[in-house]
Amino acid sequence: MNEASKPRIDWEKARVDYEVGGLSYGQLAARYGLSKAAFSKHGRKNGWVQDAGPAVRRQLAERMALGGKVADINPEKREAAIASAVSDRVELLKEHQTEWRAIRAAVRQALNDANSDDWNLRSKATATLKNMRLASQALALTHIGERRAHGIKDDDKAPGDGVYRLVQVEDPYAE
Predict the structure, then answer these.
(1) What is the pTM of this model?
(2) By residue range, what is the domain housing residue 27?
């Protein structure tokens, strides 16, 4: 088959058909007009697996990179299910980021107060910092549990979303 007669393949759509739609390489070949061997080779090379999890995580990373906005969602039901799962996870990650910003702001204020000439303010700041340590550990454990419950693994985090690692907390769900 020469270059001019090769069909143009939308590899992302074919990947969704395989991973989420459950089509076999043979069914993909029939649908897209390319050989089964070509799909098999491309699938192995690019890590295709028939499981919705990787597709959800891939789209989650893409949407987080876009600030949670949808670039292009396929209107098919399978894509809609993935998009819905991604939306839920994006909202959870945004909530986690907001909570950490609040902790950070409170810690910064307490650190500023700790440098005050007022002894009472310094004393309150010390107590606040101790409480913030406990609060941040509790928040970190909550976030670990929520991420685990939503199928978000550490390798799924968007850049800059690793604040909870600053608090040394063991993951009680670690394998």
Answers:
(1) 0.46
(2) 9-50
User: How many separate domains does the chain show?
Assistant: 1
Q: CA 90, CA 53: separation in Å to the nearest integer? A: 15
Q: Is residue 13 situated within a structural domain?
A: yes
Please report whether residue 166 resides in a domain: no
Phi, psi of 73 (to 5 degrees): -105, 125
Helix axes 119-149, 77-114, angle to 10 degrees: 160
User: How many of the other CB atoms lie within 10 Å of CB of 72?
Assistant: 7
Q: What is the DSSP letter of 6?
A: S
Query: Which DSSP letter does residue 157 get?
Result: P
**How do residues 11-44 score in pLDDT, each as one tens digit?**
888 888 887 777 889 989 999 999 999 999 999 9
**Does residue 47 come out as left (phi exceeding 0), alpha (psi in the -120 to 50 range) or beta?**
left
